[in-house]
Design a protein that fits this description.
mainly alpha; 106 residues
């Protein structure tokens, strides 16, 4: 984890999903690592697809911010906006580092 002190990103998740969340988060972190590699290699089509997947999968589990940032990656990749892609991926990294999950009825 980096030296920067970030505000905690608190996510409330339905307790019925608790057993699914570890696998889900591992998959999202893998997608994130693929995004970083695609950005490094300027693979805009890969970034578009990865952002779209993250946008689509995160909302259903209650991770709206991750989904929103995935959507930004998707849109930035469509227009090949490197700066916006870089910024969105940096924000995703901060989000993953700061994420705290609480299970409670929603």
């Amino acid at each position: 984890m980096s030296e920067r002190k970030e505000k905690e990103v608190l996510v409330y998740v339905d307790p019925r999903l608790e057993k699914l969340i570890p696998k889900f988060m591992t998959a999202q972190k893998t997608q994130f690592e693929l995004m970083k590699a695609a950005l490094k290699n300027l693979k805009y089509e890969d970034l578009k697809l990865l952002g779209h997947r993250m946008k689509g999968s995160c909302g259903g589990y209650g991770f709206a911010l991750l989904g929103e940032l995935g959507g930004k990656v998707e849109k930035a990749a469509e227009v090949q906006d490197f700066e916006l892609l870089s910024d969105s991926i940096s924000k995703l990294e901060i989000c993953f580092e700061s994420l705290k999950i609480e299970y409670r009825k929603i």
